[in-house]
Design a protein that fits this description.
Blueprint: H1 7-19, H2 25-37, E1 42-49, E2 54-61, H3 65-73, H4 81-85, E3 94-95, H5 96-99, H6 102-105, H7 109-115, E4 123-131, E5 136-143, H8 148-187, E6 195-201, E7 206-209, H9 211-219, E8 223-225, E9 231-233, H10 236-249, E10 260-264, E11 268-277, E12 297-304
Antiparallel strand pairs: 1-2, 1-5, 3-4, 4-5, 6-7, 6-12, 8-9, 10-11, 11-12
């Protein structure tokens, strides 16, 4: 058992990677083709919050769905490879043992309860695609221990050839997705450069923030990101309103929720609105993922409210 890629098959993989910039569903097709071309290696493309150590979206082929569910809900925080990947060069394919010795990996709960029960897929090959501070995007594959000699090196070579196309596709998707968000802001009568925008899933986790949104998060006086990557208002009333809005948007009969206000002493008041968003609106600038956490997304807009001023009485004009 080995890996042999014809020119036609490689072109097919490149075409799927390129077209995924416009249609994220094709990432699943790309991963399926990559797995089939690599003797059935389990492959994944995922995004993770390195601070919260929380999965923000997983696309995969070849894994047991039950294990993907447990990864998203629990084992993502225990994955010992992800924190180490923050320090490696994006685009460089690395074998897992170069990141963490096998003897150390075998002592972890992640290995004993997640890797070993899946046919002992202890051998990993992967690459960091993007490091955007609050989000890491990675691609890789897991290989059974018994197949390491035959598959590890050929798969690493194939993945390294594909990395530039995958990175380019993610970059194009992000650029087009940011335009999708800007257009949505303008359709609501707001100014994109003056409106903080966040994309949240059903649990309130942040998948995207525009520049104004990132600035608000850094200041921390109006909103913060908690230890589980969820957005939280410092104002309890606003936080309760956000919770109701997220609940309402995921009801089948609900598409609109009421606006609300939030603020801080130094920042003044913000008008907050929530709206559903999907790929029907256009490409999105984040990996939507699949599995149990792919619940859909809501856009949260925060637009500054001009401070009220006392009217100045007009002086009568004589003559």
């Amino acid at each position: 058992m080995t890996i042999h890629i014809t020119d036609d098959r490689f072109r097919r993989l490149v075409q799927l990677a390129n077209s995924s910039a416009l249609d994220q569903r094709k990432w699943s097709w790309f991963l399926e083709e990559l797995s089939n071309a690599s003797a059935g290696i389990r492959v994944q493309l995922f995004t993770q919050d390195p601070q919260a150590r929380y999965s923000l979206g997983v696309l995969e082929h070849g894994y047991d769905p039950a294990f993907i569910g447990s990864y998203e809900s629990y084992y993502a925080a225990l994955n010992p490879w992800v924190p180490i990947c923050q320090s490696i060069q994006p685009g460089r394919v690395m074998p897992s043992e170069a990141l963490l010795p096998l003897s150390d990996l075998e002592k972890t709960e992640f290995y004993n309860d997640w890797l070993r029960p899946q046919d002992d897929i202890v051998v990993g090959v992967g690459a960091l695609l993007e490091n955007r501070g609050e989000r890491l995007s990675l691609i890789g594959g897991n290989i059974a221990r018994r197949d390491r000699e035959h598959l590890e090196s050929p798969f690493a070579t194939l993945l390294q050839r594909l990395i530039p196309f995958v990175q380019h596709s993610l970059k194009v998707a992000r650029m087009l997705g940011e335009l999708t968000i800007e257009n949505r802001v303008m359709r609501e009568g707001m100014e994109p450069d003056l409106t903080a925008v966040f994309a949240l899933d059903g649990r309130g986790r942040v998948h995207f923030a525009n520049r104004s949104g990132e600035k608000l998060l850094r200041s921390g006086d109006v909103i913060q990101r908690d230890a589980s990557a969820r957005l939280r208002f410092s104002d309890a009333t606003a936080q309760a309103a956000l919770g109701r809005a997220l609940h309402d948007h995921f009801l089948p009969e609900m598409t609109v929720s009421l606006p609300f206000f939030a603020g801080a002493r130094k920042r003044g008041q913000f008008l907050c609105r929530t709206l559903p968003v999907s790929e029907c609106d256009g490409p999105l600038p984040w990996l939507t993922g699949s599995g149990s956490h792919a619940t859909g997304f809501v856009l949260l807009f925060l637009a500054g409210v001009a401070p009220s001023t006392r009217p100045v009485p007009r002086q009568p004009t004589i003559g």
